[in-house]
Design a protein that fits this description.
- Strand 19 (281-291) and strand 20 (299-310) form a beta hairpin.
- The protein has helices at 2-19, 114-124; strands at 22-26, 31-39, 43-48, 52-57, 61-65, 70-74, 79-87, 90-94, 100-104, 108-112, 132-143, 149-161, 165-178, 187-201, 206-217, 222-238, 242-257, 260-278, 281-291, 299-310, 315-326, 336-350.
- It is elongated.
- The protein starts with a helix and ends in a 6-residue tail after the last strand.
- The strands form 2 sheets. The chain has a 12-stranded antiparallel beta barrel.
- It has 2 helices and 22 strands.
- The chain has 2 domains: 20-124, no CATH class; 132-350, Porin (Beta Barrel), CATH 2.40.160.
- It is mainly β.
Amino acid sequence: MCRAVVAVCLSVLAAGLQSRADQVTLKNGDRLTGTIVKSDAKTLLIKTEFAGEVAVQWPAVQAIQSAEPLHVALKDGRLVAGRVSTTDDSFEVAAGPGGVVSAAKENVVSIRNDAEQASYDQSLHPGWRENWEGGANIGFALTRGNSQTKNLALAFTADRKTLHDKLGLYANSVYATNDAPGAVPNTTANFILGGIRYDHDVTPRLFGFVGADFQTDDLQNLNLRSVLGGGLGFHAIKSPDTTLDLLAGLNYTHESYSGFSRNFPAATLGEELTHKLRASTLLTQKLNFYPNLTSAGEYRATFDVGTVTKISKWLGWQNSFSDIYVTNPPAGKKQNDILLTTGLNVSFTRSSEGGR
């Protein structure tokens, strides 16, 4: 008698626990019970008691019955929250005082539970210290004996990307000396370049940008070149593995050389390519053209290409090539400055707490 009572109690308890769980029925008749985590209209993730998290192909889902409220995003831009049930291919969300909201399965963009929705909302408005990615490149060479030289190359990049904008910082420096007695010049390279740029999407393809670039070059007698400008860009290619942006705008350039300085407005024309050669190697390439709008035939052009190959999660090997061309340098100075660097890359990532 006691065993029968215990068995009945356990059956009632199990039924009660099951009734408070989400249920997903597949088209082949299988049924999963647990907690629905999220769906992106490609896969649905449900956390089960014994199998852990299970990813199910969205087209294979026949029916959903949720015990707890879910946040359902629809193609028309609406976001409704409530317990979800399905009838044939129609979703019904019990949205509280708003009544029941019905939508066809093909109009459901995403489904998230409370925790996933809170995480997603946070990712839309990350703090300024979040969502940063970047790295520092370090290269050093030293010779002694028949030659006495040293060379130090440093570089830094950092990008903060959100759903609709991007902030980028960069800096490059090359310093080299010939320490042999009587060597002229003793300093064979002393070059610093840095800048900042902010992009904001106007549409999924079109974006506006503003930026500032600064450069010094001792061997070209350039004390400071500052370029302040902005314009519009177009995402010609925007995929997980490849991006190609086209840029057009205006800038104001100030150049201070030893003995003279000049100021002039210029146009900004350029393209920027990023491509994953394979899982561990990233290729970046930039080409920019800055024609002087007050003196025909005078311009500055820059070309940069580089690769970073991951060795570990935070360590990589980088190679970079840069060419800066000026049509009208100071008398006696060359028009081209070429930089080739290679060395270790130390990367960092600071994501938002919730992620995306």
